[in-house]
Design goal:
single chain; mainly beta; Lipocalin; eight-stranded antiparallel beta barrel; globular
């Protein structure tokens, strides 16, 4: 989650959408598990682990971070999810884009469903300027 945070934060601030229904996941929420995110230019790949307790573990380049997250229950009109992620711990090293994410960094993202499974990860609900696609990491999901 740490990668591209500056871009995403700007996008989230410009978004007029509100997230009144975001919260930690219900038992069995489809986001729970391990995911791989690849940016649209395929230059950056990250691993995200969404835990049932509302925390994540993320690896991007040399950066490892932990965060808390809230996620909606199919609350948006396109059938995807609204995700709010806040960094709580980081090793301070650069992510795969060369950026560093400080503790307290918060982003709001929209996970829009892809017909082949997975989600496009976007800073706005309309799907403009999506940063990449996220698919379940079946090989490492427990």
């Amino acid at each position: 989650m740490a990668s591209l945070r500056s871009f995403l934060l700007i996008g989230a601030l410009l978004s007029a959408a509100t997230v009144s229904s975001a919260r930690p996941p219900d038992v069995g929420h489809p986001i729970i598990g391990k995911w791989t995110l690849t940016t649209t230019d395929s230059a950056c790949t990250e691993s995200w682990e969404f835990r049932p307790d509302g925390t994540t573990h993320n690896v991007s380049g040399s950066e490892e971070s932990t965060s808390t997250y809230e996620i909606s229950e199919l609350a948006n009109p396109v059938g995807g999810y609204t995700l709010i992620d806040t960094i709580t711990k980081t090793n301070g090293k650069p992510d795969c884009t060369g950026n560093r994410s400080p503790v307290g960094d918060r982003v709001e993202l929209y996970l829009l469903p892809i017909t082949t499974g997975g989600f496009m990860v976007c800073p706005t609900l309309d799907g403009a300027a999506c940063i990449g696609s996220m698919f379940r990491d079946v090989a490492h999901d427990s």
